[in-house]
UniProtKB/TrEMBL annotation:
Residue ranges of domain Tetrapyrrole methylase in the record: 1-181
Domain Methyltransferase, chain residue ranges per copy: 253-320
Pathway annotation: Cofactor biosynthesis; adenosylcobalamin biosynthesis
PANTHER family: COBALT-PRECORRIN-6B C(15)-METHYLTRANSFERASE (DECARBOXYLATING), COBALT-PRECORRIN-7 C(5)-METHYLTRANSFERASE
Name this protein carries in UniProt: Precorrin-6Y C5,15-methyltransferase
Keywords in alphabetical order: Cobalamin biosynthesis, Methyltransferase, S-adenosyl-L-methionine, Transferase
Matches recorded under SUPFAM superfamilies: S-adenosyl-L-methionine-dependent methyltransferases, Tetrapyrrole methylase
Coiled coil: none
GO MF term set: protein methyltransferase activity
Length: 409
């Protein structure tokens, strides 16, 4: 049997160590307890050698104790141990997780929080979740701490709560702006970072914990957005575009030539972080109004593509609307930057070959359709006719991970 003991947000019960013949844990965990004199001690580095030694002790029915942070079943070592030895071999003794402790310190419930780990993982997923959601807990690691998180969020209205050394005499809980976090050296004692939109941090009463449920409807009616003279991506086009973009929590999506921002808002409703790029001042205001009306976060960049794209983080997916002679050049820039997919909507037949070439030249597998739809429309006398909408070409490219491995990573 392996006893897995939570520590870090409070002292572990010393009796859990009684009779242990092998104690495994991080250096700070091992230094914080009194080990039995005869016990072998392994400071965790690479997991494989430690697991092999633990297996040798188990074969001889010798007692093993593993020390871990907080609740070791929550983004912790329990998963690895259960995969190697089976759940029945584990006796888990959790303490309060760093996430629960941090939210408790600031007096907030966390059943509606999103928890994301950046420990040993790419920080971009955590950044995009923080951009999209109002209440996020980020488990940090080397190279993915408060400074790096803050630097990526300076354009967003957020407060970072940095909780360090939770449960110890050196505990600190500090509220800072992303810009303030970006210029500090936080050391190695950070337990967790909370990223909060304080205007929405209280949240509503929930039935299901975790991220908000996906919307029941998408491809919303045009009337659910503010737009100018019907200059909006129609819901039939939007439905297929969303299917090819695949927006989800942790993604970053660009909506280039956003117009009313209908695609941007829909992607944000489905959980993605979204940047909408629009060159007209009145369009910028419409996008902001539509995002507010649908209660989602959309970062709006006022500028013309492709120049306005230069300072943006690389996206997972891009939607390009509008037209003009510069459209193939814009698509080419987007295609070089996109990690997964690019979707382009256009009315002009003349643009299709150049846009297709821009996608295939960037290594995308390209496909497309001409969308033509007719909607039911009433006529006098309680009868109905079919009213045709304007045809739209929709091209999309999907990244080939083999030929563009560097971008995909």
């Amino acid at each position: 049997m392996i006893t897995v003991v939570g520590t870090g947000t409070g002292a572990p019960p010393q009796e859990c160590l009684a009779g242990a013949e092998l104690v495994v844990g991080g250096r700070r965990h091992l230094d914080a307890v009194r080990l039995p004199e005869a016990a072998e001690r392994i400071v965790l580095g690479p997991l494989a050698p430690a697991l092999d030694t633990m297996a040798e002790y188990l074969e001889k029915e010798r007692r093993v104790v593993v020390l871990a942070s907080g609740d070791p079943g929550f983004f912790g070592i329990v998963r690895v141990l259960a995969e190697r030895f089976g759940p029945a071999a584990l006796d888990v003794r959790p303490q309060v997780s760093s996430v629960a402790a941090a939210f408790a310190r600031v007096g907030l419930s966390w059943d509606d929080a999103v928890v994301v780990s950046a420990h040993g993982r790419d920080l971009r997923t955590a950044v995009n979740v923080c951009r999209a959601r109002p209440k996020v807990a980020v488990l940090t690691g080397p190279g993915a701490g408060p400074a790096e998180l803050g630097a990526a969020l300076t354009a967003h209205t957020r407060v970072l709560v940095v909780a360090s050394a939770l449960g110890t005499d050196d505990e600190r809980v500090e509220r800072v702006t992303p810009a303030e976090a970006a210029v500090r050296d936080w050391g190695t004692a950070v337990s967790v970072v909370l990223c909060l939109d304080e205007s929405r941090a209280l949240g509503a009463v929930r039935t299901v914990a975790g991220p908000a449920a996906p919307p029941v409807r998408w491809a919303l009616e045009e009337g659910e957005f503010t737009h100018r003279d019907s200059m909006i991506t129609k819901f039939e086009v939007r439905a297929l575009a969303l299917a090819r973009l695949g927006p989800r929590l942790g993604d970053l999506v660009w909506d280039v030539g956003a117009g009313s921002g209908s695609v941007a808002v829909e992607c944000a409703r489905l959980g993605a972080a979204v940047v909408a790029v629009e060159k007209t001042p009145d369009g910028v205001e419409r996008i902001r109004a539509n995002a507010a009306a649908h209660e989602v976060d959309v970062r709006v960049v006022h500028g013309s593509a492709p120049d306005a794209l230069a300072e943006l983080d690389d996206p997972d997916a891009v939607f390009v609307g509008g037209g003009g002679r510069e459209l193939p050049d814009i698509v080419a820039v987007c295609a070089r930057r996109a990690r997964r997919s690019v979707v382009v909507a256009m009315a002009a037949l003349d643009r299709v070959p150049a846009v297709r070439a821009a996608l295939t030249d960037a290594g995308f597998d390209c496909d497309g359709v001409l969308l033509q739809s007719s909607r039911l429309a009433p006529l006098p006398g309680d009868v109905t006719r079919l009213a045709a909408t304007n045809p739209v070409f929709l091209l999309w490219g999907a990244r080939n991970p083999v030929s563009h491995e560097g971008v995909a990573q």
